[in-house]
Design goal:
It is a single chain. By secondary structure, the chain is of the alpha/beta class. It has a single domain (2-109, 165-229), classed as Alpha/Beta hydrolase fold, catalytic domain (Rossmann fold, 3-Layer(aba) Sandwich), CATH 3.40.50.1820. It is 37% helix and 14% strand. It is built from eight helices and six strands, in the order E-H-E-H-E-H-E-H-H-H-E-H-E-H. A six-stranded parallel β-sheet has the order 2-1-3-4-5-6, with helices on both faces. Helix 2 crosses helix 3. It is globular. Residues 3-228 form the Thioesterase domain. This is Thioesterase. Pfam families: Thioesterase (PF00975). InterPro entries: AB_hydrolase_fold (IPR029058), TEII (IPR012223), Thioesterase (IPR001031).
Length: 230
């Protein structure tokens, strides 16, 4: 069983570097590398969500023909997961066994806009810091902050500019929705994923803020949720 993991805005494949330690060996973690960060930091940024989805699909298209697979996406990664599902079913004869939507309301619902790419740099970074998404070593380094700022701003921009398109067919596999107890997502926004799915939809709350997946205690709990559903 392959599990493709998609990062949040500003994040790289390194977010998921420790997950193999916590999850059953029958599940193989494949952390997706996005352009402009991590091992692909020399590549140009995506212009929109569709371009990102096309790039991700190119990375996984051969693998999904060979084995069963599922997808886990956090925040921006959850939005990418939703669009990637339709790219897969419209392009191949394959379908994921399960989708894990983490740290985000469904794309058919308008959430509270807390952060905008149009904000001045300082206000923008202060808002990111308030969510708990910047490590202390980054906050203490002007060079690292200057490096990550354009990555974050571009990711937020393509998410802000995303236009939801209603599909004739709902998601045809079971889904899990995971959120932090301290995140700014209400019950209706969590439950809204159910309206996009014909399968079962389970909601899970984990202790923490928007970036609850960066806590190893939560990663252990997430691993159990993944194992139960795969």
């Amino acid at each position: 069983m392959l599990l493709f993991c998609l990062p949040y805005a500003g994040g790289s494949e390194l977010i998921y570097r420790n997950w193999n330690k916590f999850i059953n060996q029958r599940i193989e973690i494949h952390a997706i590398a996005l352009k402009g960060r991590g091992k692909r930091f020399c590549e140009g940024f995506y212009q929109n969500i569709n371009e990102a989805v096309e790039d991700i699909y190119c990375q996984i298209q051969d693998k999904i023909q060979q084995e069963e697979f599922a997808i886990y996406g956090h925040s921006m990664g959850a939005l990418l997961t939703y669009e990637l599902y339709y790219k897969i079913i419209n392009t191949s004869n394959r379908k994921p066994k399960h989708l894990f939507f983490s740290g985000r309301f469904s794309p058919n619902v308008k959430g509270n806009i807390i952060i905008s790419h149009k904000m001045p740099d300082k206000e923008f970074m202060d808002s990111i810091v308030a969510l708990g998404g910047i490590a202390d070593e980054v906050l203490e380094s002007k060079e690292l902050l200057e490096f990550i700022l354009p990555i974050l701003k571009n990711d937020i921009r393509i998410v802000e500019n995303y236009v939801y398109k209603e599909r004739e067919e709902k998601i045809q596999c079971n889904i899990s929705v995971l959120n932090g107890t301290e995140d700014n997502i209400d019950f209706y926004q969590k439950k809204s994923w159910k309206y996009l799915c014909d399968g079962d939809c389970e909601l899970y709350d984990l202790n923490g803020n928007h970036f609850f997946i960066n806590n190893n205690v939560n990663v252990k709990k997430i691993a159990r949720i993944i194992e139960e559903n795969l």
